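Input.
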Amino acid sequence: MNYVTLNNGLKMPQLGFGVWQVKDEEATTAVAKAIEVGYRSIDTAMIYQNEKGVGEALQQASVPREELFITTKVWNSDQGFDNTLRAFDESLQRLGLDYVDLYLIHWPTPNFDQYVDTYKALEKLYHDGRVKAIGVCNFEIVHLERILAECEIKPVLNQVECHPYLSQNELKDFCAKHDIFVEAWSPLQQGGEVLNNETVQQIAKAHSKTSAQVVLRWHLQNNTIVIPKSVTPSRIEENYNVFDFELTENEMTAINQLNRNERKGPHPNDMNRR
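Output.
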């Protein structure tokens, strides 16, 4: 496992396990398998409705709690200072934990303009020692600039949609300048067209790897934190086995050139659903 050091000194596994669209009853089995394979970072959220299932897997795990890195998120309808504190308590109860390692704002929902107050609640949770790090999801540069200007604690990361067809170069440059990691959700374009891309497939063949493994390796070598999701045991293992090969500079360049600025999910400025 590769680890990165966040801007507050906390170490985080660079490869984690996501559980978006995993049913609560399936989450326990999937997370247990992921921990067995070697994953130590688990990414969930209130809106996924599987924090309880994730928590059950954590209680059953033979791995000590301090070796696990658990992330969850505050949903749009719970934004605002007091609402966020309440939502955090509820997430913690469902997870069955005393603290989480990382707490994130799920979307900026700019039409409601509550993300600064929400972030200040995250700062309180951090100061109170109930979370080890705080950050954001789906924030554009303009949203990050407000957080940096109006809040005290710099986000440790910004979790955004990112894959070879949406490489997020401008956002990555901004985040790197401010010592904020980028974490990729839908890193495999939700198993989409990118995995059948001829360039990706040729590189995969050259390394005797799958297209998914090549794309995950591309993320890692771009210094991006990545959280692939699967409920299939063989895929969970496959996605983890990306530390025994390296893409060449030419291969990295070839994948970098695939960018189409093509999203699978909504643009953050348009995502104002509660």
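The first helix runs from residue 24 to 37.
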